[in-house]
argininosuccinate synthase
Amino acid sequence: GAVKHVTLDVTQEYYNKSIKYMVFGNVLRNGTYPISVSSERIFQAIATADYAREIGADAIAHGSTGAGNDQIRFDLTFEVLAPGIKIITPTRDMILTREYEINYLRDHGYVADFTRMEYSINKGLWGTSIGGKETLNSEQTLPEDAYPSQITAQGTEALKLEFKEGELHAVNGEVFADKVKAIGKVEEIGSKYGIGRDMHIGDTIIGLKGRVGFEAAAPILIINAHKMLEKHTLSKWQLYWKDQIATWYGMFLHEAQYLEPVMRDIEAMLTSSQRNVNGTVSIILRPYSYTLVGVESAYDLVKNDLGEYGEIQKGWTAEDAKGFTKILSTPLRVYYANQKKNEK
């Protein structure tokens, strides 16, 4: 049996070195999943490897099966950060299924409500994943009672999220120095409406397509509010290149490549992009959904002295517009003139 138990709390490190950048990049895998468990596992593995080295352990054990992504995340991190320390994986090596484990407990006189064990629930700071028989096929969705957070609110509720340099700063006017607590506050408000529930279908590291349910009220509300604020405060090309780079960042994070040096380079770019992402986003919550109402920001590029889209302009004349359009059309006019000449 165990002779000692230690809890390694790396919540703040997880926020500072991962969640913060996922918000900066509006990272949603396949446009849906906020990489909840995927990102968390890496920091669990790093903390475990560091502690194993600290105490001089000769082995590290983890309970991943041989069927998913987590085995890669744990094994790879241990191989890199704790080389020479043996990795023990009884669940994977002995092919211990959930059904086998439940039957084993029953056979040995352990009495409990095993219905909840029909679902694999991984609850974390940045969302909760839920796997069960419904996620093993493509036709079904999770039943209402499979979600850990149940809907307790009706009607509508206003929510205001304030950001400073891309980070969540205040919730409904309450300033949070501790960003982890700010996330918890948004989760508390949003989860009672069932916001952030969805089904993620994606490609796993091992090559199979996987399907998992999740609930992530805080990540979905924070990311989409942040994204809306960015649309108002960043330039066209900042938005474009951020999207490309953030997609790579999310993919590498999911694929157990957090320790790849390029990730630090991407984080530097994402941080640089957030200088003007300051302001407050107004949201209306209702059961199962929400509406992004608008933003208030001193850096709002929609508000300018040159004109209003579709209404009036003050920065150029009609002749300027004609000249601009003619110059812009030059490459196309050259191409189609050449096509027409060669079609004869």
